[in-house]
Amino acid sequence: xxxxxxxxxxxxxxxxxxxxxxxxxxxxxxxxxxxxxxxxxxxxxxxxxxxxxxxxxxxxxxxxxxxxxxxxxxxxxxxxxxxxxxxxxxxxxxxxxxxxxxxxxxxxxxxxxxxxxxxxxxxxxxxxxxxxxxxxxxxxxxxxxxxxxxxxxxxxxxxxxxxxxxxxxxxxxxxxxxxxxxxxxxxxxxxxxxxxxxxxxxxxxxxxxxxxxxxxxxxxxxxxxxxxxxxxxxxxxxxxxxxxxxxxxxxxxxxxxxxxxxxxxxxxxxxxxxxxxxxxxxxxxxxxxxxxxxxxxxxxxxxxxxxxx
Amino acid sequence: xxxxxxxxxxxxxxxxxxxxxxxxxxxxxxxxxxxxxxxxxxxxxxxxxxxxxxxxxxxxxxxxxxxxxxxxxxxxxxxxxxxxxxxxxxxxxxxxxxxxxxxxxxxxxxxxxxxxxxxxxxxxxxxxxxxxxxxxxxxxxxxxxxxxxxxxxxxxxxxxxxxxxxxxxxxxxxxxxxxxxxxxxxxxxxxxxxxxxxxxxxxxxxxxxxxxxxxxxxxxxxxxxxxxxxxxxxxxxxxxxxxxxxxxxxxxxxxxxxxxxxxxxxxxxxxxxxxxxxxxxxxxxxxxxxxxxxxxxxxxxxxxxxxxxxxxxxxxxxxxxxxxxxxxxxxxxxxxxxxxxxxxxxxxxxxxxxxxxxxxxxxxxxxxxxxxxxxxxxxxxxxxxxxxxxxxxxxxxxxxxxxxxxxxxxxxxxxxxxxxxxxxxxxx
Amino acid sequence: xxxxxxxxxxxxxxxxxxxxxxxxxxxxxxxxxxxxxxxxxxxxxxxxxxxxxxxxxxxxxxxxxxxxxxxxxxxxxxxxxxxxxxxxxxxxxxxxxxxxxxxxxxxxxxxxxxxxxxxxxxxxxxxxxxxxxxxxxxxxxxxxxxxxxxxxxxxxxxxxxxxxxxxxxxxxxxxxxxxxxxxxxxxxxxxxxxxxxxxxxxxxxxxxxxxxxxxxxxxxxxxxxxxxxxxxxxxxxxxxxxxxxxxxxxxxxxxxxxxxxxxxxxxxxxxxxxxxxxxxxxxxxxxxxxxxxxxxxxxxxxxxxxxxxxxxxxxxxxxxxxxxxxxxxxxxxxxxxxxxxxxxxxxxxxxx
Lengths: 309, 428, 352
Hints:
Chain A: Pfam families: Ribosomal_S9 (PF00380). Chain A is of the alpha+beta class. In chain A, about 45% of the residues lie in helices and about 10% in strands.
């Protein structure tokens, strides 16, 4: 923010002709911003007609009636490091001061916004925005987003669109799993390198993995239990039949991929089970994978042995 | 003087006091001294003998431990324990009797194995160390639907079953037992004397009561002087004291049992695929030996194929499974054809591109009946698990959901896998 | 998200904002008392009257599991401040006296442990009397039920499920990653080598089966187990309880921490520190593992490690194990160092 401040200070010096108005404008807080705008608007509105008059008169007396020696920039932020961004910040801070009194909702209930990322904002504005500045701006924007949606002024809504991406990824919902005419629901699950598809249908509790029974598919009892955990936890092992196809990875990965696949398909049959399945740890995709190898290392973390010369 | 001086040159003829002379015998070596490698020449400082750094670290004081005797560790591993005093005794279960298994109403029920049968089965090595007999107070068995079916068939073929033979046939063909060729056979046949001796002793232990009552029909005095015309089969079985006489005695016993008027015989074998392959043995010309050239196996196969008749009635049962086996095309073909024939389905034809068909195996199997064993049904699984619960081995509440869970985890009711999933686990 | 104060803090760095910066309220910090002991977290009452062993030995019911550690520190501290006697009076038995009101002969009740008692043992490492355990269990259940109010509404609608929803509160071991008993889980991870979890689990299962097939242990009067231990005949059929009792009985109650330079003259100050349940179990099982690794195996095959563990657990329960000596040693050291609990040098070091 220090750079912004200095930038504005420069703007002050540049507009030294209007110094008297500036000083007076500073005193009352509410009209302070108006004062800045008045400078800019003045320079914009007044200069073109003056020039036209001069051209029309074609009087060779130079600089007559000219109030500014050179073109005054549209905004005092012009002299800062990040002019557009600075303007954005000033504008949104003013909004916050203005609507600070409005009731807010807890952060969990605020509408989900696809906030512009730092990189995107840099690319949009073409300015070298500092990460710390970006963070401060985003804090203000997120505070504004907390204002109760029904009471939110139009002004705020418009201002917040400046901070959001055009595409809202939160509206991208996966296609719901449907139950086909044979009563099957297909769930897909992944874990480590494994991918599993589970076809879940109401039945008597027979489970086949790649056409084999559980005991043939998995040698370890722990893995067999994992594979049908979604059914055992919700006490539905004798209510459904499962036909699973799984490929890639090792035994643990395959078993837990089936867990996820079966759970998703089961939720398609009975949506109310989702809470219970989440508590049973069957809904969440485990994102852990093998850590990549780094150069200079023998494996992901192992360093080569120390050699004396 | 000349004579004196000459005498001084010759060897003194006077007897010299005997001295103890060291006897020097050079070490025997065929290489000359010159060709022995000389110590490496020292050319520079590198070749100088290096000072070895003395380590002052204290050696860990190794406590002398009494090492186990040879065979002790294996015996510990292979130990078979049939009772657990901590387990709760299960009351209200009937004992297994001769006729129980054949009755239809006993299907799907648990039965206690009587002590004398336990001893017999133990002698025949019917219990395995991988099974969970050691968890329960007493051996109990579940009579399945298939058991009743099999026993019904056995009942039809014989009135009173008397003698058992039980082979663990993997040991026969994997080259782990001693073997010796039988002279004057073409192609050469082999016996396994040590195994035969052990088998004879096991047969005697398991069937002592029957053998002692049955007199010999032929004169076997050439085998042993103790065998008189009036002696019994038990004497015959006991007459083999050393492994050289084991096979003649065993074949004599087999000949006796196939005579008319003797008790019926039940021959059983586990691991059929192992006796149908080319064994790990080699003949003197180092050609591989087909398992059917082993006389013990040959005896069984002849009985199975019907070449040896059982005039007194009897049965030959061979079992194979998907575990501890290998793919044998002829065996697969024969079994699938028999199964399809029994079910009235179209019989599969042999694959014309398969080169590994073995006619001897096919001929041995083609006259038999096939019975496929799957896992137990859910009702039978429930009975089994109730028994586990009553023994105190299963601590969770037992309801149909738990039964269905363990049934599915055990690969649709495979008993061994169900035991793994519910008894030998951290969740109980 | 950012609180209001922080938002203003963010705005404050804006150059053109004329509003004076608000001073953040920082006075609440000074309200916290300057001296904090380990015991402060656990005890509700400010301090119990110093009465030595007599008050502590009142009854077993006094030895509330949560307070055990706290009371230990309190007692030690009071003892130290009372005159810092040398370590003659407070030996191992006295320590037991303070903690448990002595180790009585194990309970001879017919029924063994109630379910609530077992649960308390697994959670806190102490067997409370049945009534108290019931009360604790009831409290935790009430807390769980208060969470499940929301679910009842969905149940009324009868929508979204075909065979009924699973009962709340969800049972132990409901989560796929927490399906085993917590005590077993901890021990399994401890005996795992080279990250081979499945081998460790197999070993653990073998240990449990060995315990189930072994005859009931014979308790040694010389090394009493946890107060309230059920009769020996109850243990083999409940291997989890068997293992827990063995480990909790032999677990040390404290460890001695060396605080560098606080002893004066460049020496370290030995400070006894109470251990939490999980820490205690870990310590005890590491000791057991040390003993096992020095023992030769009796047979061959892959179950030997498990058999040695099981034999050592039985040895602990029967009082034959050398782990008991280790425990005694640590407690002796702890009692000797108890004079250092409220040491001035410690405070001086903290202030720095």
